[in-house]
Amino acid sequence: MGVIYLVRHGQASFGADDYDVLADRGREQARIAGAALAARGIRPDRLVSGGLRRQRDTLAALADAAGWDLEPRVDARWDEFDHTAVLDDFLATTGRSGDFTDSKEFHRAYLEAVAAWTTGAAAAQETFAEFDARCTAALEAVAGDDTAVVVTSGGVIGLLAARLLGGDATRWAQLNTVVVNASISKVLSSGRGLTALTFNEHGHLEHDRSLVTYR
User: Which residue ranges traverse the bilayer (predicted)?
Assistant: First the structure.
């Protein structure tokens, strides 16, 4: 029987020219998550991350804080879907402007774009079906009789949680928006298959509400 801990990357640089860079708060979140896992007595046999910089840097900070001396493995199947491409394709298809006046307007358009993507009404370079398949394959690849810690992204974690709980794309869209940065989700691997034990744990961040972020 094994356990897989899925950790979302720390807060990235939302609104900056390069989103794929951890903000200072994101590094702090990663260190706190690592210390929290170590305090629970977790000693992983494997460390894995997606190939995105924010994922790799989160794993490095997390492992350092936890005191884990393991060589991490990078698997690009844990990468997030390209939300920029999904939104751009939606805007091009609908003829809408991408000049948003505030974050709420952007968020509404983003949710519409994701909904269209999941139904196949709007397709970016990677379809939702392809995203679904690679995330499932990534999880199956780390399933085993040992303990793995994987740093990935909110869309991936939300999708896997939805699938493990028997949900569809609509359920994923709901979970995708609530995954907290540096939160921890736990999956049990056994002879009976994969079972979701917890989703989006972030009590280790709640001592400071400014650490509970979603982007």
Answer: none
